[in-house]
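Dear Dr. H.,

I hope your travels went smoothly. While you were away I took the liberty of generating a structure for the chain from your last submission, since the lab meeting agenda had it listed for discussion. I wanted you to have the full record in hand beforehand rather than looking at slides cold. The sequence, exactly as received, is reproduced here:
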Amino acid sequence: MNSPLAQRLPALATPLVNKFYDRVGARGRANKQDLLWVVRCDNEIVAAARVSRLEEQQFLCGVFVAASHRRQGLAGTLIRQVCAELNGPIYSFIYQHLCPLYEQLGFAVVATLPEHLASRLRSYRCQGRDVLPYCYREPADA
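The corresponding predicted structure, in token form, is as follows:
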């Protein structure tokens, strides 16, 4: 496989991302206000990510790679592209087993969150999600 490329999709393509999420059993749904990125293989979406705007913050969520395409660097490709196209900070709640990947990509644990994100984090944890709050900030020399 050639180096995968992540591409940003227009809001009009939101149903395509939701069909991908449904097909692979991913949680969550994209809406037309979300910013969307995908990786395709043979014109089929095999990985997707979305960024929701929550009040003044950008929230990366819905990063998912089809099982048949895992361990090929697609999640990293998506996340790097999102971070390259958006001005930070970008918040995300990361499952603990994925923390090393996100740290490699420039994310760091945050001790305090804006209240609306802290409330969302509490809700996720009440649902049994083993997540930590992370944030990406653009490198100082960028």
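Two observations you may find useful: The chain has a mean pLDDT of 91. The radius of gyration is 15 Å.

With kind regards,
E. W.
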